[in-house]
Amino acid sequence: MNYQTPRGTYDILPEDVRKWHDMEAKLHRIAALYNYEEIRTPYFEDTGVFAREGDSSDMVNKEMYSFGNEDSYTLRPEGTAGVIRAFDQHKLYGSMELPARFYYVGPMFRHERPQKGRQRQFTQFGVENIGLKDPYLDAETIALGIDIVKSMGISSVKVCINTLGDDASRAAYNTALKEYFAPHIDTMCPDCKRRLVQNPLRILDCKDDHDHPAMKGAPKLRDYLSEESKTYFEEVLKALDAMGIPYEIDERLVRGLDYYTHTVFEVISTRPESGAQATIFGGGRYDHLVEYFGGPELSGMGFAIGLERLLALAGEDGYAFPEKPRTDVYVIGLGNVGTAPLAIAKQVRDAGYSAVANFAQRSLKAQFKSADRLHARYIVIAGEEELKNGTVNIKDTDAKTQETVAVNDLIKTLKEREK
Length: 419
Ligand code: HAM
Prior knowledge:
By secondary structure, this protein is an alpha+beta fold.
């Protein structure tokens, strides 16, 4: 049988796993700088965690992997809902300093049409802070994301930002959109027909009808914003200015998920080759999720980065990924040496050096070739004759020297050479 990875999934081979480790180390370090703590939630949840009543997003309506007989479960398409579910389930609002600051790294699953930068299993790094509704916190959250992008050597990005305002502003705007789009809806896509009923705001986010003539004259949210919402947004922008983070206000940015209120943002790669999947990370504020899952009335704010996209952009921008680490010691056996290479390699590892022992009966040349392919720093040659005297040969491939040492002094010799 010739199996391949399922459509929209991919293997990460060792050479690339090294890059992932490097990126992940940065994510953990930067999250810690902002005092966020990691949270791990299940890869699947009750379907209701994601499919909240009245949700109009494509993610919930078209892209979920759901299964189960009596109970319905869904592979998580995103991280926010699970984190808030956990926050409420464990009543963390009672025990944690607020705002609670969480981050997560892990796979997400969406049944989308795979293309460059869009998979069915992909990986997100996300943050959620819960319990403080403050425009400065919104700006600080964006700064965290920008720090991560910069740490991977990516500089061609722009921050697009908008506000969806408070509930009353959005309700007034939705009514206006409904009235405006109703006469045009027959010429719009089937999804927009559904959106007109469920959540007209989402029409603005439609990929198919992006260039529909009716889009141009659509009412602007800014004309429906309450004074409070306007002030809140102005403060977010002021805080971004204060941190020296440039941004563009994009009045059509409504985001693809339904839970947002007030600030929404996306950070986009401005490299022309990034194409349609140029969004590196996106997020925003959500006022109602904590209550939805049974907790108190607390507002949250967060974003998620698509890590495959981050990694691809880092590569394109010439980020220097670390080289494969060298093997410290390669142990060659010469003649009938039995378990000696095995025992020597064990002794070397016990001292904290990496070691590979040759077990098969192979020519000296073949064994040296293996040592070379592993870029071994030292080659220890355990010869039958030398072992009888309790000695081995050690070759330093950097210094290009070779000496005979007592097996018992091998570690001491390695340590001396490290000095
Ligand atoms: P999202 O915009 O759906 O937001 O996803 C965030 C990021 O995940 C995207 O900007 C993109 O980089 C990446 N992404 C999404 N779908 C795919 C895919 N099919 N293949 C590859 N990468 C993908 C959320 O998920 C929200 N939970 C973010 C958030 C957190 N909002 C508040 N807190």
